[in-house]
Write a structure and sequence with these properties.
Blueprint (H helix, E strand, L loop, with lengths): L2 E9 L16 H13 L6 E2 L8 E11 L5 H11 L4 E9 L11 E10 L12 E3 L5 H8 L4 E4 L14 E12 L2 E8 L6 H13 L5 H8 L16 E7 L9 E3 L11
Parallel strand pairs: 3-10, 5-6
Antiparallel strand pairs: 1-3, 1-4, 2-3, 4-11, 5-9, 5-10, 7-8, 8-9
Length: about 270
């Protein structure tokens, strides 16, 4: 009997060409599918909630695959972690309905872009932040971010996109949060355009540094010019924090990786 298993996955995207499988570069999808094959002896295709770009990290990516394995979900989570490298971890596994689609059924995605203030490098944080050498005005950045909330044409913050695709997205939340020498640009939307978060964060940095006024930020957003926000911040500062659904995670039959360890050859 075929089951559908949903996974909540954390990964350090450094060194990977993104979530989606690539012909000539390592990907998160490839690593997960290899681990599934090692665990179940059957090749499976895993589908993610979002195709994070090269170098982008995740705390709460959601993906699903079909299997005929009879292993309970706690053994599946522990078994996959046994075969995965240190940069990828399954945080939870669930039995879900056969119709569950992690991309189409997502209600929103939450992304965070981390900005680090400081003139000197910070080696331990260099792979997860973008360093700004001057202090940012978080209040002005927060004020500009307020204009993002609602349903808008966000083409000013979009990278290349296939012709005919819509640029309209619904921004549920946009905030700038300070924590000592770090600022986080946090965006939640029903979906995002290519490079939207990194271009938005780049424009907000310009506001925070006084290079752009809040009024100019608003005008750029309303300009209708694709890619008007020209600064695309590096991928390393971006993390997919969470994918939100109605009715997922299910209240029962859930496991986290703290529940079980896995030994090869165990049932």
């Amino acid at each position: 009997m075929t089951r559908r298993i949903a996974l909540v996955i954390e990964y350090d995207g450094t060194g990977y060409a993104g979530f989606q499988r690539q012909a000539d570069a390592p990907s998160i999808q490839e690593e997960l599918e290899n681990a599934i094959q090692s665990l179940t002896a059957v090749r499976a295709t895993i589908r993610g909630a979002g195709r994070t770009d090269a170098g982008v990290h995740a705390l709460g990516q959601v993906a699903a695959f079909d299997t005929q394995s009879i292993l309970p979900v706690e053994r599946i989570a522990a078994g996959l972690n046994h075969y995965l490298g240190e940069q990828i971890a399954v945080r939870a596994a669930y039995d879900v309905a056969p119709s569950f689609d992690p991309r189409r059924h997502a209600k929103s995605r939450v992304y965070r872009y981390r900005l680090l203030e400081g003139r000197a490098p910070f080696p331990l944080r260099r792979n997860v932040t973008y360093r700004v050498t001057r202090r940012l005005d978080a209040d002005l950045m927060r004020l500009a971010a307020m204009d993002l909330v609602g349903q808008h044409d966000f083409r000013a913050f979009s990278g290349p996109q296939p012709q005919g695709r819509s640029f309209t997205r619904r921004m549920i939340r946009a905030d700038v949060v300070r924590n000592d020498d770090e600022l986080a640009v946090e965006l939640e939307a029903n979906a995002f355009l290519p490079q939207q978060v990194r271009r938005t964060a780049g424009a907000l940095v310009d506001v925070g540094l006084g290079r752009m006024t809040v009024s100019a930020f608003r005008q750029m957003m309303e300009s209708g010019a694709q890619g008007a926000a020209e600064t695309v911040l590096p991928a390393r500062g971006l993390t997919l924090q969470e994918v939100r659904y109605a009715g997922f995670p299910p209240e029962s039959h859930a496991t986290t990786t703290h529940d079980e360890t896995y030994e090869p050859g165990s049932p």
